[in-house]
Write a structure and sequence with these properties.
globular, five-stranded mixed β-sheet, six-stranded mixed β-sheet
């Protein structure tokens, strides 16, 4: 896990081949490379950067890293035009308590337009992690995805699910009801490890915790 002031990215290794899940904010390319080298790995073995969605704290360094090392940038087709700068970032429907968090998030530098080399769809199999499965998880943004590595029991949730303090639906959603449906779909995968866009990964009682958070008990009358 590569942690930034706001949010985080993840590095997956298959032998010497590297895959980055999200890419931090603009200006994070050097720290990401430093982190890769600190692990005894080589940045030139970075083969792909999978972007879980179009927000600036996830896409910022993707283009710079891809240009330096020839990595392929992947994103869902619905968010790809935003990442390329062809369409505006979709506006979230904010709850009152989300407003101060949203203003804090705006402190992250704007992400430059970034090429997307491959537009992915739900159910596509990607060539890392012994078969990584794209899981379309709209609601946070229209093209948000999770990345599921079923042979390893690992799920990267993007910002559909958050783990800050507690496991919960992610914030800043363009369609909260749709995001809740996506949360339930991701929870149904029953991973052993869940890696969130914000908050510490979940490694203990993961499937049960996700299921409970995705299906909260109704409030008593």
């Amino acid at each position: 896990m590569l942690r930034f002031p706001i949010g985080q990215a993840y590095l997956w290794r298959d032998g010497e081949a590297l895959t980055l899940i999200d890419a931090g904010h603009a200006g994070a390319a050097d720290p990401i490379e430093d982190a890769i080298r600190s692990l005894g790995l080589r940045p030139d073995r970075l083969e792909r950067i999978v972007l879980t969605h179009c927000h600036r704290d996830h896409t910022g360094a993707a283009g710079e890293l891809a240009d330096r090392w020839g990595a392929q940038v992947l994103a869902h087709r619905l968010d790809a035009p935003v990442i390329r700068g062809e369409r505006p970032v979709p506006e979230p429907v904010l709850l009152d308590w989300e407003l101060p968090l949203w203003e804090k998030g705006l402190a992250v530098p704007e992400a430059p337009p970034t090429r997307v080399d491959r537009e992915v769809e739900d159910g596509e199999i990607l060539a890392f992690g012994d078969g990584a499965v794209v899981v379309h998880a709209p609601g946070h943004t229209p093209g948000s995805i999770g990345v599921h590595l079923p042979r390893h029991g690992v799920l990267f949730t993007g910002d559909c699910v958050a783990g800050v303090g507690q496991v919960m639906l992610g914030v800043f959603n363009v369609d909260r009801a749709q995001a809740q449906d996506s949360f339930r779909r991701l929870a149904a995968l029953s991973p052993s490890v869940a890696c969130f866009g914000h908050g510490d990964p979940l490694t203990t009682a993961t499937a049960a915790t996700l299921h409970s958070a995705a299906h909260p008990a109704p409030l008593a009358p």
